Amino acid sequence: MEILMSVAAGILFMGGTYLVLSKNIIRIIIGTSVISHGAHILLLTMAGLKTGAPPLLGLEASSYTDPLPQALILTAIVISFGVTSFFIVLGYRAYKENGTDNTENMRGTDSYD
Amino acid sequence: MFTALHLAIIAPFLAAVFVPLLYKKIPSIHTGWFVLIVPAILFVYFLQYIPTTSEEGAVSAVFPWIPSLGIHFRAYVDGLGLLFTLLITGIGALVVLYSIYYLSKKRESLHTFYTFLLMFMGAMLGVVLSDNMIVLYLFWEVTSVSSFLLISYWYEREKSLYGALKSMLITVLGGFSMLVGFVLLYSITGTFSIQETIAATSETASHNLFLPAMLAILLGAFTKSAQFPFHIWLPDAMEAPTPVSAYLHSATMVKAGIYLIARLTPVFAVSGEWLWIVAGFGITTLFWGSFSAVRQTDLKGILAYSTVSQLGMIISMLGVGAAALHFDGANGNNVFIGATTAALFHLFNHATFKGSLFMMVGIVDHETGTRDIRNLGGLMTIMPITFTIAAIGSFSMAGLPPFNGFLSKELFFTSMVNITEFQQFNMDTIGMVFPAVAWIASVFTFIYSMIVVFKTFTGPLQKEKLDTKPHEAPFGMLLAPIVLVSLVIVIGFFPNVLSYTIIAPAMASILSPLLEQGQQFEVDIYFWHGFGTPLKMTIGVVIAGILLYLGMKKWKGVYRLFPEKLSFNNLYDQTLDKGEVLSQKIMGAHMNGFIRNYLVYIFAFIAAFLLITMFYKGAFTIDVSDTAPITIYESILFLVLFAAVGVMMFTTSRLTMIIGLGVAGYTVAMFFVIFRAPDLALTQLIIETVSVALFLLCFYHLPQIAKNLEPIRFKAVNFIISAAVGITVTLIGISAGSSRMFESISGFFKDYSYKEAGGRNMVNVILVDFRGFDTMLEILVLGIAAAGIFTMIRLRLAGRDEL
């Protein structure tokens, strides 16, 4: 199952990268979101997906799944949410200001160089 | 300890601080008068070292600067250092005196001029009196910088800036290479002290870094001393005010390279390469400089090439003099010692006559408004004193009796003839080239020396071509060159004044291994030294020179064989131009302002780097023994995820895309459920919902953008790169999952979550207790994001349109 999940993470990374490489700002932002999903899945997978009880001691099971990657992922989810929402609003504002959602057209002034 | 000697070296720097102050506060007196005190006092101060160096050898004083790195400011006065020191301070004083009359108090910004000049003087003293290589390098670069500042003194002229930049680039290139050489020497000997390095010569010579160190240091010396082919900066440095040309570019700075070669001769001269390279470059420069000088029409241009050629001559003699170290002892049959004597003697002589010639040209320029020999002529009766100076200086330069140039030229011929008797390193066969080239170069030297005198002062006076009515210069301006030409004559008649006071101690520094304790070199420079080969060569030079000078119109066409296009100047200009164009092209080609391109580089690099590393290092492993089984639920979720990603990649509808993201997010949440991560699942569900809502708000409901996106154009490059990234991640995931190096530390959380932290939800205990610090900062991230969003929405800067 680890291999299947690695493939899933790979697919998410591939899709995310493909979107990020496009010109459209929404695609780029969604691409970053997809990549972060991939990263979370990868984190979880690499720690091992051995079946055990959820990491709640009250269950008194003989084995639990590893709680540490879960804590790490939880932090990562929240941070990626913060960044994504910032991106969304930034993209929105950029669209409002520049009148375009095409990054190729967002080139500043001509005098750049 | 900080001694008077250290103070003397840095005195010009200290004095430079007060120059602007004096210039502003006492405008009625020419600032140069105050400055004159510094070199005059220093000259007198250093004169008292003459008995010390000639009797006892060297004096040194150490001031620790960075002791932990072995960098001490060790002032070291020996014969060689003192010879240069006296030149620097003596000619420095004369140049300052001359500049007082040359530079107008009203028109010029004197404070900058004298500040730079004093900086240069201090740096030059530091170069010749430092025993530590790093300190020497420091002062060396200060001479480059102050020379740069002085050349561009009239900075509103484009040619001054061009000349300054050129000299800066070339000398700093060489200086840097010299630093590399010093560091290489340090890695051989473990000391930065020159004297200790000399003491360790026997070990260094066999080291395999010996040759690289030698070449790197020689590059530094050659660029500074304007040796072929790095001589090109010197003629362009003539845009500097004439006192600067006289001081820096004839008497002192260009001799820093000579100093370095002379100073390190005991270290490197054991090798044949040193002898060949130093003597070979010297003789080439001698010929090329004198050959090029004849084609010049600007007096300063002639003198610049003449300086180049004379420096080449000195360096070739130093190279030949190094042969002396291959024989034992300072006894009479070691004829190669004479070359070193000649080099030092000519070094001194050149400073005297070249300084006076530059000052003479400055006077002519000052009084007529031009330096072009095509416009000059017939000044002999109008400016008799200037003419006398020019004649004495030029005849000395040409090597005519009874001036000092004659003596050094005779010694030069002697050493060039002697080198053919050297039995090592092919000198006895190919070495024949040296006297031959030296003779031809001397003929050219004779020709341009005659041009300097006769084209300027004889012939018809061309009044219509001169800006001002010419007249004799004021006495103050003539004083400094008169002192110098007096030296030319005095040394011509009484050359032995210098022998044991200056030259023998300097030789002792260069050829130190030859001397026993308490021994001294015998230096005898006779005015009449017998009717030998050198004298015949000189007579030949005079006859050939006169014939060629008179018939110059006929053979001038020779110069068309070497058009400007083939010159090293052109190569330098082309290198700069092409380099600039090329770097602009390279920059423009990859930094084109499109984010997509940069992302392509980044992703392609990541994928390529990781894949190559993984396979090259054999890091990829698959181990399926430890994996969990695949169930139907995961397979279904996997397919859903796959479909969602596919939809997102290729849809053109904004809404479909956002929903696709939502589907992917919920699927991930489902995975979290399956993999026994309840907290993750909860968080993921909520956050995905909020994100999707935000996406909808911003990109679907709020703006007036078309609901559909432009269809994404399928780009093979993008697809390949993203597939590569996906594959890389998959492989890393599989490989990392398959090779576990050690047990997880999570057993700790299981054992202690309740015992230590009093909680049963291990994930939550980790988040707020064991690793609470992460959580705090994560809260901060959210806070910053919220504040940022609020700012972006609410804040409207006034006048933003102008930005």
From TrEMBL, chain A:
The chain crosses the membrane at residues 6-21, 28-49, 69-92. Its main location: membrane. Pfam families: Oxidored_q2 (PF00420). It is a multi-pass membrane protein. Keywords: Cell membrane, Membrane, Transmembrane, Transmembrane helix. The keyword Glycoprotein does not apply. It is found in: Cell membrane. It comes from the Bacteria. GO terms for cellular component: plasma membrane. Belongs to the CPA3 antiporters (TC 2.A.63) subunit C family. This is Multisubunit sodium/proton antiporter, MrpC subunit (TC 2.A.63.1). It comes from Salibacterium qingdaonense.
UniProtKB/TrEMBL annotation, chain B:
It is found in: Cell membrane; Membrane. The chain crosses the membrane at residues 31-50, 82-103, 110-128, 134-155, 167-189, 209-234, 246-262, 274-291, 303-327, 347-364, 376-398, 432-454, 475-506, 526-550, 598-618, 630-650, 657-675, 681-702, 714-734, 779-797. One of its GO terms (cellular component) is plasma membrane. It is a multi-pass membrane protein. Keywords: Antiport, Cell membrane, Hydrogen ion transport, Ion transport, Membrane, Sodium, Sodium transport, Transmembrane, Transmembrane helix, Transport. Coiled coil: none annotated. Residues 130-423 form the NADH:quinone oxidoreductase/Mrp antiporter transmembrane domain. Residues 66-114 form the NADH-Ubiquinone oxidoreductase (complex I) chain 5 N-terminal domain. Residues 718-794 form the MrpA C-terminal/MbhE domain. Residues 640-704 form the MrpA C-terminal/MbhD domain. The keyword Glycosyltransferase does not apply. One of its GO terms (molecular function) is antiporter activity. One of its GO terms (biological process) is sodium ion transport. NCBIfam families: 2a6301s01, PRK12645.1. Belongs to the CPA3 antiporters (TC 2.A.63) subunit A family. This is Multisubunit sodium/proton antiporter, MrpA subunit (TC 2.A.63.1). It comes from Salibacterium qingdaonense.
